[in-house]
Amino acid sequence: MKKVICHITLILIGVAISVTSLNGQKKKKGEEPEGYKFTMETTVPATPVKDQHRSGTCWSFAATSFIEAELLRIGEGEYDLSEMYFVRKAYEMKADKYVRMHGKTNFGSGGLAMDVLHIWKEFGMVPNEAYDGLAQGDSLPVHGEMDAVLKGYVDQVIKNRNRTLTKVWKEGYNGILDAYMGVVPDKFDYDGSTYTPTSFADGLGLNPEDYVSIGSFTHQPFYAPFILEIPDNWLWSSIDNVPLDEMMELLDHALKTGYSVCWDADVGEKSYDWKKGVALMPSTEIEDLSGLERARWDELSESEQQALFYDFSTPKKERTITQESRQEMFDNYQTTDDHLMHITGIAKDQAGNKFYLVKNSWGTGNHIYKGYQYVSEAYMRAKTIFFMVHREAVPVTMAEKLDL
Questions:
Q1: Domain range annotation of the chain
Q2: What separation, in Å, do the N-terminal and C-terminal C-alpha atoms of the chain show?
Q3: How far apart are CA 386 and CA 142, in angstroms?
Q4: What percent of the chain has pLDDT over 90?
Protein backbone atom coordinates (compact mmCIF):
# COMPACT_ATOMS: atom_id res chain seq x y z
CA MET A 1 0.00 0.00 0.00
CA LYS A 2 2.86 2.41 0.84
CA LYS A 3 4.31 1.90 -2.61
CA VAL A 4 0.97 2.78 -4.22
CA ILE A 5 0.62 5.95 -2.11
CA CYS A 6 4.19 6.98 -2.93
CA HIS A 7 3.51 6.39 -6.61
CA ILE A 8 0.39 8.57 -6.51
CA THR A 9 2.21 11.27 -4.59
CA LEU A 10 4.97 11.34 -7.18
CA ILE A 11 2.40 11.66 -9.95
CA LEU A 12 0.76 14.62 -8.21
CA ILE A 13 4.13 16.28 -7.62
CA GLY A 14 4.88 15.77 -11.31
CA VAL A 15 1.53 17.28 -12.25
CA ALA A 16 2.17 20.33 -10.08
CA ILE A 17 5.64 20.81 -11.49
CA SER A 18 4.38 20.36 -15.05
CA VAL A 19 1.57 22.88 -14.61
CA THR A 20 3.94 25.39 -12.98
CA SER A 21 6.41 24.87 -15.76
CA LEU A 22 3.75 25.33 -18.41
CA ASN A 23 2.52 28.53 -16.77
CA GLY A 24 6.09 29.74 -16.60
CA GLN A 25 6.57 29.07 -20.29
CA LYS A 26 3.59 31.26 -21.09
CA LYS A 27 5.23 34.19 -19.30
CA LYS A 28 8.42 34.00 -21.31
CA LYS A 29 7.67 35.83 -24.50
CA GLY A 30 9.54 34.85 -27.63
CA GLU A 31 10.68 31.53 -26.18
CA GLU A 32 9.64 28.66 -28.44
CA PRO A 33 9.30 25.10 -27.04
CA GLU A 34 11.81 22.65 -28.40
CA GLY A 35 9.19 20.41 -30.00
CA TYR A 36 9.82 16.95 -31.37
CA LYS A 37 12.94 16.41 -33.43
CA PHE A 38 13.09 13.29 -35.56
CA THR A 39 15.97 11.39 -37.10
CA MET A 40 15.09 8.95 -39.87
CA GLU A 41 16.45 5.42 -39.54
CA THR A 42 14.95 3.96 -42.70
CA THR A 43 12.72 5.23 -45.47
CA VAL A 44 10.96 3.73 -48.47
CA PRO A 45 10.49 5.91 -51.58
CA ALA A 46 6.93 7.11 -52.20
CA THR A 47 5.06 9.31 -54.67
CA PRO A 48 3.87 12.87 -53.83
CA VAL A 49 1.13 13.46 -51.25
CA LYS A 50 -2.41 13.84 -52.62
CA ASP A 51 -5.63 15.23 -51.17
CA GLN A 52 -8.84 13.22 -50.85
CA HIS A 53 -10.48 16.54 -49.92
CA ARG A 54 -14.20 16.26 -49.13
CA SER A 55 -14.61 12.56 -49.83
CA GLY A 56 -14.53 9.43 -47.70
CA THR A 57 -12.05 7.71 -49.97
CA CYS A 58 -8.91 7.40 -47.84
CA TRP A 59 -8.93 3.65 -48.48
CA SER A 60 -8.35 4.23 -52.20
CA PHE A 61 -5.78 7.00 -51.72
CA ALA A 62 -3.80 4.92 -49.23
CA ALA A 63 -3.84 1.73 -51.29
CA THR A 64 -3.09 3.59 -54.53
CA SER A 65 -0.12 5.34 -52.88
CA PHE A 66 1.00 1.93 -51.67
CA ILE A 67 0.80 0.47 -55.20
CA GLU A 68 2.70 3.46 -56.59
CA ALA A 69 5.44 2.82 -54.01
CA GLU A 70 5.51 -0.83 -55.04
CA LEU A 71 6.11 0.25 -58.63
CA LEU A 72 9.00 2.41 -57.45
CA ARG A 73 10.35 -0.52 -55.45
CA ILE A 74 10.50 -2.85 -58.47
CA GLY A 75 12.07 -0.19 -60.69
CA GLU A 76 9.06 0.67 -62.85
CA GLY A 77 9.36 4.39 -62.17
CA GLU A 78 6.87 6.94 -60.85
CA TYR A 79 3.19 6.52 -61.72
CA ASP A 80 0.21 8.70 -60.89
CA LEU A 81 -2.58 6.14 -60.67
CA SER A 82 -6.28 6.95 -60.52
CA GLU A 83 -7.79 6.69 -57.05
CA MET A 84 -11.18 7.56 -58.46
CA TYR A 85 -11.18 4.58 -60.81
CA PHE A 86 -11.12 2.27 -57.80
CA VAL A 87 -13.73 4.44 -56.07
CA ARG A 88 -16.04 4.32 -59.10
CA LYS A 89 -15.84 0.54 -59.44
CA ALA A 90 -16.38 0.12 -55.70
CA TYR A 91 -19.57 2.22 -55.86
CA GLU A 92 -20.89 -0.10 -58.58
CA MET A 93 -20.13 -3.23 -56.57
CA LYS A 94 -21.49 -1.77 -53.32
CA ALA A 95 -24.84 -1.01 -54.93
CA ASP A 96 -25.22 -4.56 -56.22
CA LYS A 97 -24.44 -6.08 -52.82
CA TYR A 98 -26.61 -3.57 -50.93
CA VAL A 99 -29.63 -4.35 -53.09
CA ARG A 100 -29.05 -8.11 -52.91
CA MET A 101 -28.82 -7.81 -49.12
CA HIS A 102 -32.11 -5.86 -48.97
CA GLY A 103 -30.21 -2.91 -47.51
CA LYS A 104 -28.94 -4.95 -44.54
CA THR A 105 -25.28 -4.13 -45.12
CA ASN A 106 -23.16 -1.01 -45.15
CA PHE A 107 -23.46 1.41 -48.06
CA GLY A 108 -21.33 4.53 -48.14
CA SER A 109 -18.09 6.06 -49.29
CA GLY A 110 -15.86 4.08 -46.93
CA GLY A 111 -13.90 0.97 -47.72
CA LEU A 112 -10.70 -0.97 -47.11
CA ALA A 113 -7.40 -1.44 -48.90
CA MET A 114 -8.50 -4.92 -49.95
CA ASP A 115 -11.25 -3.33 -52.07
CA VAL A 116 -8.53 -1.90 -54.30
CA LEU A 117 -6.86 -5.30 -54.65
CA HIS A 118 -10.18 -6.90 -55.62
CA ILE A 119 -10.98 -4.22 -58.21
CA TRP A 120 -7.43 -4.38 -59.56
CA LYS A 121 -7.82 -8.14 -60.03
CA GLU A 122 -11.31 -7.97 -61.59
CA PHE A 123 -11.20 -4.74 -63.58
CA GLY A 124 -7.60 -3.56 -63.78
CA MET A 125 -6.52 0.02 -63.10
CA VAL A 126 -5.84 3.24 -64.99
CA PRO A 127 -3.54 6.27 -64.71
CA ASN A 128 -5.01 9.44 -63.29
CA GLU A 129 -4.74 11.25 -66.62
CA ALA A 130 -7.12 8.70 -68.13
CA TYR A 131 -9.74 9.03 -65.39
CA ASP A 132 -9.64 11.61 -62.60
CA GLY A 133 -13.28 11.29 -61.53
CA LEU A 134 -13.77 15.06 -61.49
CA ALA A 135 -16.59 15.47 -64.01
CA GLN A 136 -18.17 18.30 -61.99
CA GLY A 137 -15.29 20.63 -62.70
CA ASP A 138 -13.85 20.50 -59.19
CA SER A 139 -10.10 20.37 -58.78
CA LEU A 140 -10.42 17.89 -55.88
CA PRO A 141 -13.04 15.27 -54.90
CA VAL A 142 -16.28 16.63 -53.37
CA HIS A 143 -18.65 13.73 -52.77
CA GLY A 144 -21.23 14.83 -50.23
CA GLU A 145 -24.11 15.36 -52.63
CA MET A 146 -23.22 12.36 -54.76
CA ASP A 147 -23.06 10.05 -51.74
CA ALA A 148 -26.50 11.20 -50.59
CA VAL A 149 -28.04 10.80 -54.05
CA LEU A 150 -26.58 7.32 -54.52
CA LYS A 151 -27.83 6.17 -51.11
CA GLY A 152 -31.29 7.56 -51.77
CA TYR A 153 -31.40 5.83 -55.14
CA VAL A 154 -30.53 2.32 -53.91
CA ASP A 155 -32.88 2.70 -50.93
CA GLN A 156 -35.75 3.41 -53.33
CA VAL A 157 -34.78 0.41 -55.46
CA ILE A 158 -34.93 -1.78 -52.35
CA LYS A 159 -38.42 -0.49 -51.48
CA ASN A 160 -39.48 -2.25 -54.65
CA ARG A 161 -42.65 -0.26 -55.30
CA ASN A 162 -43.18 -2.13 -58.60
CA ARG A 163 -43.09 -5.46 -56.70
CA THR A 164 -40.28 -6.53 -58.98
CA LEU A 165 -36.95 -4.89 -59.69
CA THR A 166 -36.67 -3.28 -63.09
CA LYS A 167 -33.95 -4.39 -65.47
CA VAL A 168 -32.64 -0.85 -65.79
CA TRP A 169 -32.01 0.18 -62.18
CA LYS A 170 -28.27 -0.36 -62.60
CA GLU A 171 -28.26 1.78 -65.73
CA GLY A 172 -29.90 4.58 -63.78
CA TYR A 173 -27.42 4.17 -60.95
CA ASN A 174 -24.43 4.22 -63.32
CA GLY A 175 -25.93 7.28 -64.97
CA ILE A 176 -25.66 9.10 -61.65
CA LEU A 177 -22.03 8.03 -61.33
CA ASP A 178 -21.33 9.14 -64.90
CA ALA A 179 -22.79 12.56 -64.16
CA TYR A 180 -20.79 13.09 -60.97
CA MET A 181 -17.55 11.25 -61.80
CA GLY A 182 -17.45 10.88 -65.57
CA VAL A 183 -17.68 7.87 -67.87
CA VAL A 184 -14.96 5.25 -67.34
CA PRO A 185 -13.04 4.75 -70.60
CA ASP A 186 -12.95 1.30 -72.16
CA LYS A 187 -9.67 2.25 -73.84
CA PHE A 188 -7.21 5.09 -73.36
CA ASP A 189 -3.89 6.29 -74.70
CA TYR A 190 -0.97 6.54 -72.33
CA ASP A 191 2.73 7.08 -72.97
CA GLY A 192 2.37 6.37 -76.69
CA SER A 193 0.31 3.18 -76.40
CA THR A 194 -3.36 2.25 -76.23
CA TYR A 195 -4.58 0.29 -73.22
CA THR A 196 -7.64 -1.12 -71.57
CA PRO A 197 -7.73 -0.96 -67.74
CA THR A 198 -6.85 -4.65 -67.69
CA SER A 199 -3.97 -4.49 -70.14
CA PHE A 200 -2.56 -1.44 -68.37
CA ALA A 201 -2.60 -3.22 -65.00
CA ASP A 202 -1.15 -6.42 -66.49
CA GLY A 203 1.80 -4.52 -67.90
CA LEU A 204 2.92 -2.99 -64.60
CA GLY A 205 4.73 -6.05 -63.26
CA LEU A 206 2.72 -6.43 -60.04
CA ASN A 207 0.20 -9.08 -59.00
CA PRO A 208 -2.74 -8.33 -56.68
CA GLU A 209 -2.49 -11.88 -55.35
CA ASP A 210 0.90 -11.06 -53.80
CA TYR A 211 -0.49 -8.89 -51.00
CA VAL A 212 -1.69 -9.89 -47.56
CA SER A 213 -3.46 -8.08 -44.73
CA ILE A 214 -2.50 -8.80 -41.12
CA GLY A 215 -3.91 -7.68 -37.77
CA SER A 216 -3.94 -8.74 -34.12
CA PHE A 217 -7.13 -9.57 -32.20
CA THR A 218 -7.80 -12.03 -29.40
CA HIS A 219 -11.48 -12.62 -30.21
CA GLN A 220 -10.31 -14.72 -33.18
CA PRO A 221 -7.70 -17.51 -33.28
CA PHE A 222 -4.11 -16.61 -34.10
CA TYR A 223 -2.40 -17.79 -37.28
CA ALA A 224 -5.65 -18.06 -39.19
CA PRO A 225 -7.68 -15.77 -41.44
CA PHE A 226 -10.99 -14.24 -40.39
CA ILE A 227 -13.49 -11.80 -41.86
CA LEU A 228 -12.78 -8.45 -40.24
CA GLU A 229 -15.88 -7.26 -38.35
CA ILE A 230 -15.92 -3.55 -39.08
CA PRO A 231 -18.66 -1.58 -40.86
CA ASP A 232 -16.59 -0.50 -43.88
CA ASN A 233 -15.72 -4.11 -44.73
CA TRP A 234 -18.66 -4.29 -47.14
CA LEU A 235 -16.67 -6.71 -49.32
CA TRP A 236 -16.28 -9.10 -46.34
CA SER A 237 -12.54 -9.34 -46.81
CA SER A 238 -10.39 -11.47 -44.53
CA ILE A 239 -7.19 -10.63 -42.68
CA ASP A 240 -4.64 -12.95 -41.09
CA ASN A 241 -4.39 -12.81 -37.31
CA VAL A 242 -1.13 -12.83 -35.33
CA PRO A 243 -0.05 -11.82 -31.79
CA LEU A 244 0.59 -8.11 -31.28
CA ASP A 245 4.38 -8.35 -30.96
CA GLU A 246 4.55 -10.31 -34.20
CA MET A 247 2.35 -7.77 -35.97
CA MET A 248 4.82 -5.06 -34.97
CA GLU A 249 7.74 -7.28 -35.97
CA LEU A 250 6.13 -7.51 -39.41
CA LEU A 251 5.92 -3.72 -39.68
CA ASP A 252 9.58 -3.20 -38.77
CA HIS A 253 10.80 -6.04 -40.96
CA ALA A 254 8.90 -4.74 -43.98
CA LEU A 255 10.19 -1.19 -43.70
CA LYS A 256 13.78 -2.22 -42.97
CA THR A 257 13.82 -4.49 -46.04
CA GLY A 258 12.48 -1.84 -48.42
CA TYR A 259 8.74 -2.53 -48.39
CA SER A 260 6.20 0.14 -47.49
CA VAL A 261 3.00 -0.70 -45.60
CA CYS A 262 -0.65 0.28 -46.08
CA TRP A 263 -2.12 1.09 -42.67
CA ASP A 264 -5.73 0.97 -41.44
CA ALA A 265 -6.11 2.77 -38.10
CA ASP A 266 -8.10 4.81 -35.62
CA VAL A 267 -7.28 8.52 -35.78
CA GLY A 268 -9.99 9.67 -33.40
CA GLU A 269 -7.75 10.13 -30.36
CA LYS A 270 -7.10 13.65 -29.08
CA SER A 271 -3.46 12.69 -29.12
CA TYR A 272 -3.58 12.23 -32.88
CA ASP A 273 -2.54 15.75 -33.80
CA TRP A 274 -2.53 16.18 -37.55
CA LYS A 275 -1.56 19.85 -37.50
CA LYS A 276 1.49 19.23 -35.33
CA GLY A 277 2.33 16.08 -37.24
CA VAL A 278 2.53 13.77 -34.22
CA ALA A 279 0.38 10.90 -32.90
CA LEU A 280 0.93 9.60 -29.35
CA MET A 281 -0.63 7.47 -26.64
CA PRO A 282 0.23 9.60 -23.57
CA SER A 283 0.50 7.87 -20.21
CA THR A 284 -2.89 7.73 -18.47
CA GLU A 285 -1.72 6.84 -14.98
CA ILE A 286 -3.61 9.85 -13.65
CA GLU A 287 -6.89 8.20 -14.64
CA ASP A 288 -6.33 5.61 -11.92
CA LEU A 289 -6.41 8.19 -9.14
CA SER A 290 -9.32 8.19 -6.70
CA GLY A 291 -10.47 10.01 -3.57
CA LEU A 292 -8.39 13.00 -2.44
CA GLU A 293 -5.80 12.53 -5.15
CA ARG A 294 -8.49 12.57 -7.83
CA ALA A 295 -10.06 15.65 -6.27
CA ARG A 296 -6.75 17.48 -6.44
CA TRP A 297 -6.38 16.54 -10.08
CA ASP A 298 -9.93 17.71 -10.74
CA GLU A 299 -9.06 21.12 -9.26
CA LEU A 300 -6.83 21.76 -12.24
CA SER A 301 -8.51 23.64 -15.07
CA GLU A 302 -9.41 21.70 -18.16
CA SER A 303 -6.77 23.58 -20.11
CA GLU A 304 -4.12 22.60 -17.54
CA GLN A 305 -5.18 18.96 -17.73
CA GLN A 306 -5.15 19.05 -21.53
CA ALA A 307 -1.74 20.69 -21.45
CA LEU A 308 -0.30 17.83 -19.41
CA PHE A 309 -1.49 15.08 -21.71
CA TYR A 310 -1.76 16.66 -25.13
CA ASP A 311 1.14 19.10 -25.20
CA PHE A 312 3.65 17.89 -27.78
CA SER A 313 6.33 20.50 -27.12
CA THR A 314 8.64 17.83 -25.72
CA PRO A 315 8.83 14.00 -25.75
CA LYS A 316 6.25 12.48 -23.39
CA LYS A 317 5.89 9.27 -21.45
CA GLU A 318 3.49 6.94 -23.24
CA ARG A 319 1.26 4.08 -22.23
CA THR A 320 2.41 0.48 -22.33
CA ILE A 321 0.11 -1.19 -24.85
CA THR A 322 -0.51 -4.88 -24.30
CA GLN A 323 -2.48 -7.42 -26.28
CA GLU A 324 -5.23 -7.17 -23.67
CA SER A 325 -5.44 -3.37 -23.53
CA ARG A 326 -5.45 -3.18 -27.31
CA GLN A 327 -8.31 -5.67 -27.53
CA GLU A 328 -10.29 -3.88 -24.84
CA MET A 329 -10.11 -0.63 -26.81
CA PHE A 330 -11.35 -2.42 -29.92
CA ASP A 331 -14.16 -4.23 -28.09
CA ASN A 332 -15.36 -1.00 -26.46
CA TYR A 333 -15.37 0.98 -29.73
CA GLN A 334 -12.50 3.12 -28.43
CA THR A 335 -10.55 1.88 -31.45
CA THR A 336 -12.52 2.08 -34.66
CA ASP A 337 -11.77 1.87 -38.36
CA ASP A 338 -11.36 5.59 -39.10
CA HIS A 339 -8.72 6.12 -41.72
CA LEU A 340 -6.22 4.43 -44.03
CA MET A 341 -2.72 5.77 -44.68
CA HIS A 342 0.68 4.71 -46.02
CA ILE A 343 3.68 3.98 -43.78
CA THR A 344 7.03 4.73 -45.41
CA GLY A 345 9.68 4.89 -42.70
CA ILE A 346 11.01 4.49 -39.15
CA ALA A 347 12.38 7.37 -37.09
CA LYS A 348 13.60 8.16 -33.56
CA ASP A 349 12.84 11.31 -31.57
CA GLN A 350 15.51 13.15 -29.55
CA ALA A 351 14.80 10.90 -26.56
CA GLY A 352 15.33 7.72 -28.59
CA ASN A 353 11.64 6.77 -28.88
CA LYS A 354 10.56 4.93 -32.03
CA PHE A 355 8.15 6.58 -34.45
CA TYR A 356 6.80 5.67 -37.88
CA LEU A 357 6.65 8.06 -40.82
CA VAL A 358 3.14 8.03 -42.26
CA LYS A 359 1.98 9.55 -45.54
CA ASN A 360 -1.57 10.89 -45.31
CA SER A 361 -4.09 11.90 -47.99
CA TRP A 362 -5.19 15.21 -46.46
CA GLY A 363 -3.00 17.42 -48.60
CA THR A 364 0.23 19.09 -47.52
CA GLY A 365 -1.07 21.76 -45.15
CA ASN A 366 -0.04 20.28 -41.81
CA HIS A 367 2.77 21.87 -39.81
CA ILE A 368 6.23 21.37 -41.32
CA TYR A 369 5.82 17.78 -42.47
CA LYS A 370 3.95 18.56 -45.70
CA GLY A 371 1.36 15.80 -45.58
CA TYR A 372 3.32 13.33 -43.47
CA GLN A 373 3.01 12.53 -39.78
CA TYR A 374 5.13 10.81 -37.11
CA VAL A 375 3.20 8.09 -35.26
CA SER A 376 4.63 6.65 -32.05
CA GLU A 377 5.20 2.96 -31.53
CA ALA A 378 2.65 2.97 -28.69
CA TYR A 379 0.01 4.56 -30.91
CA MET A 380 0.75 2.06 -33.66
CA ARG A 381 0.40 -0.87 -31.24
CA ALA A 382 -2.87 0.45 -29.84
CA LYS A 383 -4.69 1.85 -32.84
CA THR A 384 -3.79 -0.37 -35.79
CA ILE A 385 -6.68 -2.27 -37.36
CA PHE A 386 -4.48 -4.04 -39.92
CA PHE A 387 -1.46 -3.69 -42.19
CA MET A 388 -1.39 -4.61 -45.88
CA VAL A 389 2.02 -5.64 -47.25
CA HIS A 390 3.65 -7.65 -50.01
CA ARG A 391 3.86 -11.28 -48.93
CA GLU A 392 7.65 -11.19 -49.35
CA ALA A 393 7.78 -8.56 -46.58
CA VAL A 394 6.38 -11.04 -44.03
CA PRO A 395 9.10 -12.57 -41.81
CA VAL A 396 9.77 -16.19 -42.74
CA THR A 397 8.66 -17.69 -39.42
CA MET A 398 5.38 -15.77 -39.54
CA ALA A 399 4.79 -16.71 -43.18
CA GLU A 400 5.23 -20.36 -42.29
CA LYS A 401 2.72 -20.12 -39.44
CA LEU A 402 0.21 -18.42 -41.74
CA ASP A 403 0.91 -20.78 -44.65
CA LEU A 404 1.62 -17.86 -46.97
A1: 33-281+318-402
A2: 50
A3: 27
A4: 77
